[in-house]
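Ticket #4471: structure export looks truncated?
Reporter: QA, pipeline team
Priority: medium

Steps to reproduce: submit the single chain below to the structure queue and open the exported record.
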Amino acid sequence: MVVAHARTGASLPVEAYFSALREVKQERGVSSQDMMQGGRCIGLHTATAECGLDNGFNLLETALAPVDDGPRGLDRLAALAHRELADTLQALEADEACILNASQHPDCPRDAHWYAKVCVPRPIYRELRDHRGWHHWEGIDAKAQNGANTSVPVEGAIRALNVAIALAPASLALFANSPLESGRDTGLRENRMTIWPRVFGPARFPGDAWLCQYPSRPFHDLGDFFHWMFGAGTVARGLPLAPSYDYKSVPTVLLEGDPCLEDFLTAPAWRGRRSDDGSTVELVPHARHFEYSQIGQFLDARLRYRLDAEPPLAELLDAWRRDGGLETLFAACGAQTYIEARAPGAGFADECLLREAGPAQALSLLPAPSAVQKGLLANLDEAWRLVNEWGWQALGELREPAMRTGVGDGRVKALCAQVLSVARSGLAPHDASWLAYPEFVLDSGRSGADRLLDTWNSAGGTARQRLAALLAHHAAVQPGRYGGI
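Actual output as written to the record:
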């Protein structure tokens, strides 16, 4: 969620937000736990959500707890998402702030001074900047996504991932919402997704950039996917000293000689230095290191999982060598697997959308990426048939026009129409109502980016004046304004 000052529209690091949010939730009878980092509160944990920050104090993040699939599942998800959004908007008043309906702040610095001021002090960022050479500050201007997360059975996980990656241009176009950067028109509808070449271009390890590039072919099985991600040409990220799922904040070990994870896991032990105090340690490989490292790629979709039972490392390595071996092992270990979509830009109902489309489209905007993904993955055979009809490489080539002109490109628009048709067929009739927003974008040819650009261009004046002019039309409105709660 892109935070902006409620009078000027300037990017704003929150200060009073978490205290205010705690009070908002207490008034509703919801208890919360503070999440601390570097002596500062960076989030609240409740039974239904983690309300925190992404990479900066100017970029809020809410991660919802899993919602049961089944009848009215998307209704429950939408109600929870809108409730959390309402709490956030109320709490932001303590900072005289709002949320912009944008997937990137329209006019925000990315220089060293701003980065030092707003970056969340997580240990992983030191590794990424200082050891791996990433230009992490490229994303400090509040680049935001609406990440749909949909559970899938282990045996179908790779096909689901392939579908999510290949059909991502449709989501890039339908949810495009970042035409502006640093106070200028970028010429793109979804400029947010230009971040990865800028972050990884100067990186110390070429494999880091490789892991954000569209694969040359679909993945065959889990083993194939993890060979791509952890094999020769890649370099293992810092690994935890003790078992952990916290990949951003725990102390880690940077391995000497920069091996790939596959080489590390097949060694008896590996020398490295701790990221927190620089001391030298011997790290013994464990199956948990394999599971921990799943986050290390930046495609338009990720395969995420958690194992209920940790297998012996030797058993994991043996399964990894066999076709379908990891699927069998993961199923035996009670794997919970899901697809994390990263292509849909963040979007929130605003006055402009209410005027142009109406309350039904405004209501559907927040859960719509989840509805699209749920429909596709529930209709996986048809979705995979669509991928094969277009061709893997042809779909990869649609990514750039989807970012540049969105549904204004004829081929991208045709893909969007087919994707929505397949998704609608995969949903129960009632759930299909949550596709109202992307169907409006397809029919009108106007995404959030087009509406934002219209206001920006008609406002005139300096970038600062245009930014202030956006607020009346593009600040997120309380869900009660359109029936969200």
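Status: closed, not a bug. The export was complete when the record was re-opened. Leaving a note from the reviewer for reference: The first strand starts at residue 2 and ends at 5.
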